[in-house]
Amino acid sequence: MAGMKMSAxxxxxxxxxxxxxVTLLLEGNTIPAKGFIHVYDSAPYMIHDGHVALHVPCDxxxxxxxxLLVGQINGTFTTIQPVNEALLSQPGQMCLSHxxxxxxxxxxxxxxxxxxxxxxxxxxxxxxxxxxxxxxNGIMSIP
Length: 143
Prior knowledge:
globular, Jelly Rolls
């Protein structure tokens, strides 16, 4: 399509443009207290350009009941806060949130893995329409 942008950020030398996506239907699945679901793994390559969307339960202030973690299995994970999509959210019930993700080579923060974590002391049981979607547009070798 004319005028459509393929990548959210400009490609770098050595970047491979890809379009990979994973859709997880979470309905009926559980995450035990302090547990997690490993959603995506791009190792041995880092994600240079990607996007995550979550449609999961939220509180009345639209805060998701799960944490979104990005990082490396053999490194560190960072919790990132997706942006709430107000038109498609019902605070206190289900919210749709999304965030662009990319590794930061200058800070040596390489994203190869994405997980959804239950930060609470109670099991989460996902209701109907709960989903996690990961889209990856570009990958690179880890320096």
